[in-house]
From TrEMBL:
It comes from Butyrivibrio proteoclasticus (strain ATCC 51982 / DSM 14932 / B316) (Clostridium proteoclasticum). GO terms for molecular function: DNA-binding transcription factor activity; sequence-specific DNA binding. This is TrpR-like protein YerC/YecD. InterPro entries: Trp_repress, Trp_repressor/repl_initiator, TrpR-like_sf, YecD_YerC. Transmembrane segments: none annotated.
Amino acid sequence: MNKKIRTDAVDHLFNAILCLQNKEECYSFFEDLCTVNELLSLSQRFEVASMLRDRKTYLEIAEKTGASTATISRVNRSLNYGDDGYELVFERMQD
């Protein structure tokens, strides 16, 4: 786990996110918190991770998501060498 991100401010943000109760609340909060481009970038990375997990090629992913190969590579590195956060979420989403 990256200790650089473990700050009181990040804890406060995560506690705020954890109190959201539904998708509409998420839309409201994240629309206030993020710019449109920031939110689209986050959702693009999540889509890239999902497609990589489904063994799609970089070309397929780039064509569908518009992500650059650098972004796809960065997400792939997180999937392979990260803290398993993506995997945790994907597993819970299957339930």
